[in-house]
Amino acid sequence: MNWTIKGTVNEFHLRIAGNKPAKSIEKEMVAVRARYAIEELYYRDAHIPTVQIVDRDIPEMFIQNIKSFLLLKHRAADMDQELYKEICERLQASILTSQPPLEILLSIMHRHGLTLEIAKAAFCRALWQRDVRAELMDEVILIDRPLKSERRDPLQVFSTWFVRQRP
Question: HSE (CB half, 13 Å, CA atoms) of 10?
Answer without folding.
Answer: 1
